[in-house]
Amino acid sequence: MSRLLSKATQPDADGCIQRVTPEKAGWQYVTFEAYQLSKGETLSLPTLDKEVCLVLVTGKANVKTKTDEFLDIGERMSVFQQQAPYAVYVPNDDQFSVTATTDLELAVCKAPGFGNYPTRLITPDMCSYETRGIGTNQRHVCNILFGNLPADSLLVCEVITPDGNWSSYPPHKHDTDNAPHETHLEETYYHRINPESGFVFQRVYTDDRSIDETMSVENHGVVMVPRGYHPVGAPHGYDSYYLNVMAGPSRNWIFHNDPDHEWIIEADKEKAAS
């Protein structure tokens, strides 16, 4: 199995099915965890030196921090409803408690925090939703904690790719600290598939092919992108959802397309104009 692919496990005592730490990924900034909590179960954790974005992937919950309480938040029961989620931002040096009021799938997204922003509830109307691409390159993007809202380090969004389509495409990378041309951001992809028996393909590769891996990713799998290009393809019959978490030296997403495939952008513009 690829070292860049983390397969889901059965829930542990806390309900965790995925845990990607800097130590596991061999990087510095991003931590990602996914939990499955049954109705009535509670997850309580300190944030320590990390800012945290709690994404209610599906289900409803009560969320408490040192200063705030948000009761029975959440709405969607499937990530494929094309409906923005509820989320809660929690700063470093805080703590949170999440109690599931229905069965709950929870993503815990972490990156270095510096105490610049307070706890806040992120409601669906605060997220920005857009459709990108045309034809088999069309996908639907929801910015949860991205350009729509500030944070110290975290960038969080989710993408739905219809069956037969591609996303994160044409292939792009963000692994060089060279603003304003490109920025360095580590990234995780948390995948969900509809129907759940399916899979998607994700390739991660660098210009020099020191990394060149193509993975078949099943439901609840996580792909780690330390550097390089990272397109995703959804086979016929299976819709793709993924939750992206990014962080790096600066909170600025500037990507660089693979020159071998950049011609696709101009070709798509011509198709859209015709």
UniProtKB/TrEMBL annotation:
GO terms for biological process: inositol catabolic process. Its EC number is 5.3.1.30. One of its GO terms (molecular function) is glucuronate isomerase activity. InterPro entries: Deoxy-glucuronate_isom_IolB (IPR024203), KduI/IolB_isomerase (IPR021120), RmlC-like_jellyroll (IPR014710), RmlC_Cupin_sf (IPR011051). Pfam families: KduI (PF04962). Keywords: Isomerase. The keyword Isomerase applies. Signal peptide: none annotated. The keyword Isomerase applies. It is an enzyme of class 5 (isomerase). This is 5-deoxy-glucuronate isomerase.
